[in-house]
Amino acid sequence: MIHEFDLPHDVGKDLLRSIVLQTLPKGQSRIWYNALMDYGALELTAQKTGIKPLNKQSKFHGSTRQVRAGIVRSLLQSV
């Protein structure tokens, strides 16, 4: 949204939310969000735009994400 509407990178969350709600097609939020995520992942990576993420993911080693990944890996091996 920041890129498409040429907003400043430090735009407030309230203004960004307002813009999102105005552009969200009624009854099609899942499709809209998926398309937005795909667009961001394919076209607007941090390397291309220089936009820094608002938060940083915690370390993987020793995290609950590591445990979940192990469970998924184990389930996939049994299929």
Give the secondary structure arrangement, pairings included.
Layout: H1 13-23, H2 29-43, H3 46-49, H4 64-77
Fold and architecture overview:
By secondary structure, this protein is an all-alpha fold. It has a domain at 1-55. Helix content is 56%, strand content 0%. It has helices spanning 13-23, 29-43, 46-49, 64-77. The N and C termini lie far apart (40 Å).
Task: Provide a concise account of the structure shown.
With about 80 residues, this protein is mainly α.
Name the features.
mainly alpha, 56% helix, 0% strand, 4 helices, 79 residues
* Rough outline: extended
| Beta-strand residue fraction | under 5%
Evaluate the radius of gyration: 17 Å
Averaged pLDDT: 83
| Secondary structure: helix percent | 55-70%
Please tally the helical runs, counting DSSP H or I stretches of 4 or more residues.
4
Kindly report how far apart the N and C termini lie: 40 Å
